[in-house]
Amino acid sequence: MRLSRYFLPILKENPKEAEIVSHRLMLRAGMIRQQSQGIYSWLPLGKRVLDKVNAIVRQEQDRAGAVELLMPTLQSAELWQESGRYDAYGKEMLRIKDRQDRPMLYGPTNEEMITDIFRSYVKSYKNLPLNLYHIQLKFRDEIRPRFGTMRSREFLMKDAYSFDLTREGALHSYNKMFVAYLRTFARLGVRAIPMRADTGPIGGNHSHEFIILADTGESEVYSHKSFIEFDIPGENTDFDDVAGLQAIFEKWTSAYAATSEMHDEAAFNAIPEGDRLSARGIEVGHIFYFGTKYSEPMGAKVQGPDGKEHLVHMGSYGIGPTRLVPAIIEASHDENGIIWPASVSPFDAMVITMKAGDEACDRVCGQLYDGLTNARLDVLYDDTDDRAGTKFATADLIGVPVQLIVGPRSGATGEVEVKERKTGARETMTVEAALNRLTA
Ligand code: 5CA
């Protein structure tokens, strides 16, 4: 992608409305634009990051055996009257009437709709376990939308829903998602700690929130420090190994970790003082086991091996991609801008010409751009004739991991300066060496 033909509306000034660094940087880097309170457009640079986050979320859901579908944003009120949540959900639910005066709503979550799909098709235990998920916009009319897409009214959620014949089966399904979440957040370049959590309007009594520690987080959290060292389950994890997944779950829940709603002061004080962590955090995922809370009122039953009808045991599992993007930035930035973990960076590398139109610069930049693109890397080529200072500031602001800088002098000798965004380390090398390094 050539910057001269891209749409990257960088802001020079710090936007006044942004209270936290991720919101400020997302606005300045031209990633998002507020359209009305708590409702955002994702501009091209932001959309690229969001797509990368979603791709990792999707891969790990699929690896854990979940199956993707897509449900609508608008739902009929009838379904929610069946579960009893239509009245209970209160003002956070955006209620709408269609032209026939039928009550509709913009879905804040999808337990009812997925239960309806399930009961329409699945009649036998032989089709279980089943886990269905989608990545879809949600709407919650939050009283205090703030911090950009961190807490917005319209936001993207990956929500998965599991169905099992028994409670034991459902707890294994829960463990699958627990492990998938550990892997997902690690691949996104952040460390998320699973914490015992309150279940709120979703319900149930077995629930964990996944929290990224950050001073600007809205949750108050308490935990043992040991989480920092726990191993992330590998790519070859066997998701059908019931005992194996239970062992991972037990390891990761062996040390104290709870949000303020579930905090047990006595248990926390039992931890040696030097190992206590009392901090703020961002909730990026939340998983629930709630048994038959929805299958019972909505009549979602299957025939068991005993020939009798059984209500299915369910769980639901949420991740917020549009919250994860700012959460990653909170965890990874410096005074010059964003520092993307490679896995979610909008581009893999940036090629920067210091003199557009200079024969040597154009040639060397072209070689780099073609070489990297042919190796299937995503490259942003700053081919503009902006001042050097502006170019460097933009490159640092948007946080692509590697900058390949070509000036008339280095261009003439077929060389390029390779700058690592994170450390600021610079090294001059031949085009070939740079290509080898990036495509190795
Ligand atoms: N149905 C369940 C799980 S599928 C559910 O709705 N869970 S939730 O309410 O905890 O939301 C799941 C995730 O969505 C949260 O962990 C968070 O990452 C994200 N999320 C929730 N509310 C917002 C919001 N207002 N803005 C951005 N992300 C949000």
UniProtKB/TrEMBL annotation:
Main location: cytoplasm
Domain of life, source organism: Bacteria
The EC number(s) this enzyme carries: 6.1.1.15
Molecular function GO labels: proline-tRNA ligase activity
Reaction(s) this enzyme catalyzes, per UniProt: tRNA(Pro) + L-proline + ATP = L-prolyl-tRNA(Pro) + AMP + diphosphate
Family annotation (InterPro entries): aa-tRNA-synt_IIb, aa-tRNA-synth_II, aa-tRNA-synth_II/BPL/LPL, Anticodon-bd, Anticodon-bd_dom_sf, Pro-tRNA-ligase_IIa, Pro-tRNA-synth_IIa_bac-type, Pro-tRNA_synthetase
Ion transport keyword on record: no
Span of domain Aminoacyl-transfer RNA synthetases class-II family profile: 37-341
Compartment(s): Cytoplasm
Keywords: Aminoacyl-tRNA synthetase, ATP-binding, Cytoplasm, Ligase, Nucleotide-binding, Protein biosynthesis
Description of how the protein assembles with itself and partners: Homodimer.
Record HAMAP family: Pro_tRNA_synth_type2
Similarity-based family: Belongs to the class-II aminoacyl-tRNA synthetase family. ProS type 2 subfamily.
Function, in words: Catalyzes the attachment of proline to tRNA(Pro) in a two-step reaction: proline is first activated by ATP to form Pro-AMP and then transferred to the acceptor end of tRNA(Pro).
Designated name of the protein: Proline--tRNA ligase
Gene name of the record: proS
